[in-house]
Design brief:
about 270 residues; alpha/beta; Rossmann fold; Alpha-Beta Plaits; 2 domains; 4-stranded parallel sheet; about 15% strand
Length: about 270
């Protein structure tokens, strides 16, 4: 292990206790592992559960916290009840994170834990991240940023620590599947979640299903696109997506890329 990891451990040790906003993703899983290793029972995981959470992520969070023997607080999040979130403006993530950090702050005060941390890493600062404004307002610390850790660093450390997430594809909330300005509601989230669950069942690994009204747009990683053109697979996907409620099913020839919905923002600028 090198200086970045040593510095991260020192940062966390100096907090004397931290609530970790824990989603079961690559970054927060690594952060929770290190926090618990240096803080013990003074490191507490908090997972917010809502219909925007991708299928399987809550179960993964419970399982990992259990393997650590770490205290794990699970709280329902109600961002969908906030019209400012549901209307899906370009700063939608602010309202989601604002709700998450409010829940974290409430628990921190109840437990007398001084610091709240999340898994934001150095690469995240380069993207459109309205949630960072909410983090600043709630006084959330980003120890992975403070330790100057990139996504590549975190995956490397996670692999060395034998964490199950070291090569896990990113899995942001289902709200990111909707074009800005398209209302987000429970029915639409369930449709997207069901489609992505089916693609997982077909052993696709890195993908997104984007919502465009009657049309579902599938993004697959470059090395998986060829599999989609197997006649049996293609027909099965079309059949399933139509059963779920879409009238049309398309494959994005550009392939999977993170934050594709932000491409329209760049054009607007």
């Amino acid at each position: 292990m090198d200086a970045k990891l040593n510095y991260l451990e020192t940062l966390l040790r100096k907090t004397n206790g931290a609530i970790v906003a824990f989603s079961a993703g690559v970054d927060s899983t690594f952060l929770l592992k290190i926090a618990y290793s240096v803080l013990g029972e003074r490191a507490v995981a908090l997972t917010a559960v809502s219909p925007t959470v991708p299928p399987g992520e809550f179960e993964a969070a419970k399982e990992f916290a259990k393997t650590l023997n770490c205290r794990h607080i699970v709280i329902d999040s109600n961002e969908l009840a906030n019209p400012s979130f549901a209307q899906n403006p370009s700063n939608r993530c602010f309202f989601c994170k604002d709700e998450l950090y409010r829940l974290c702050r409430d628990q921190a005060e109840k437990l007398d834990i001084p610091v709240i941390v999340d898994g934001t890493n150095l690469d995240d600062l380069k993207d459109h991240r309205p949630g960072l404004k909410a983090a600043k307002e709630w006084g959330i610390r980003h120890p992975l940023v403070e330790a100057e850790m990139t996504k590549e660093d975190i995956r490397r450390y996670s692999r060395a620590l034998d964490l199950p997430t070291w090569d896990k594809p990113s899995s942001p909330c289902l709200s990111s599947r909707f074009p800005y300005g398209t209302e987000i509601n429970l029915e639409r989230l369930r449709k997207i979640g069901a489609c992505e669950t089916y693609l997982k069942e077909l052993r696709f690994r890195e993908f997104r299903v984007r919502y465009h009204g009657d049309l579902a747009r599938i993004e697959l990683s470059a090395h998986e696109i060829g599999r989609f053109f197997d006649e049996t697979t293609r027909q099965a996907v079309v059949k399933k997506f139509k059963e779920i409620g879409f009238n049309y099913v398309s494959l994005d020839l550009q392939g999977y890329r993170t934050g594709s919905m932000n491409e329209t923002l760049a054009k607007a600028i």
